[in-house]
Write a structure and sequence with these properties.
about 90 residues; mainly alpha; single chain; 3 helices; about 65% helix; rod-shaped
Length: about 90
């Protein structure tokens, strides 16, 4: 074995550094994918926004505003004309 010291990992620290960097990138990618999947698919049963609030993606606020408008009309807080005017504004 005359060439034992001239193998692929000659110099040692460069190869070790590359292996460390590749493992950090690999595990960082795996963790990132898991976090993205959990955020996307978890929590569909709960409410994202508070009363009249807007959710993270902005879509819940539109539904909440219409729901609140419907409730105010049902309670008699606003008349039909006001209800229709505000509803048409919300629908754009």
């Amino acid at each position: 074995m005359p060439y034992w010291d001239h193998g692929y990992w000659d110099g040692g620290w460069v190869g070790g550094l590359l292996m460390l960097l590749s493992m950090v990138l690999l595990w960082g990618g795996v963790i990132t994918v898991v976090v993205i999947l959990v955020r996307r698919f978890a929590g569909h049963g709960g409410s994202r926004g508070g009363e009249g609030g807007e959710g993270r993606d902005g879509r819940d606020g539109y539904g909440s505003a219409l729901r609140i408008l419907d409730e105010r009309y049902a309670r008699g807080e606003i008349d039909e004309e006001e209800y229709e005017r505000r509803r048409s504004r919300l629908r754009g």
